[in-house]
Amino acid sequence: MKLYNRDYNILTKEEILEWKRVKNSEKDGILFGRINKFREYPKAARHYSTLFPNNYLDIQELKNEEYISKVSQKFLEKINEQNVNERQILNFINNNQYYLIIASLFNLYDFGHHDAYLFKEFPLGNSYVVDYLLVGKGSGGYEFIFVELEKPSERIFVKSGDLGDTFTKGLRQIANWKRWCENHFLSLRETFDKCRSKSADLPSEFFSSDSTRRHYVVIAGRRKDFEKNSEITYTIRHEKRKNEAIQLLHYDNLYDLARRISGKDSY
């Protein structure tokens, strides 16, 4: 589940000295109180000072518009490859550490702007593995987004506009995750404990089973699949989102969302 090559629980002497230097410059202002210079911390210190150092999504990367444009374009090229499947897409994201592609899903929610984390191939006990788990903090605390990748092609919707085999498979997976979380969510505390900073305690949201804090995303198909019988498709997506907290998206949505976060202050 660790996202990066280095361990951000450990800082070098140079990083500690630079971090202290910046922190010492965070003087109290007359009008606005203490000035926070988090963005000026060394990158490693930004990670180190968060709840999950090795799973933190660094907001400073959002300012690198050239990088986000490059990553978005490479992702588009990948999903345009003939016969590409969901495992190849997942490997493409993980092997290149293009996590901002998945992190862009925070655009669809009102949390993640205070703190944002990503866990790849997150285990639900010994029963299931979630492709990606996004954890974001908003004004109401932390919430969770469980993400399932499915095929970019093959029976996304049938001719009538109803869900095809690919989305049906993804929804079955979501149903399994939901049932598991209802019965065992508290047991995830041990998994989160292994990832958290040893200088921070887990907030209550991580060990109180509140289903309203859990959201689900299934990604399958391309834009053209959704444009067939678009009225029925829209109705199905709307009902899933409203009644079951499930977003049904296509891979072009991910490309669009990734482009949208470019230059933002937070996820």
UniProtKB/TrEMBL annotation:
Residue ranges of every copy of the Shedu protein SduA C-terminal domain listed in the record: 85-255
UniProt xrefs under InterPro entries: SduA_C (IPR025359)
Top-level taxon of origin: Bacteria
Protein name as annotated: DUF4263 domain-containing protein
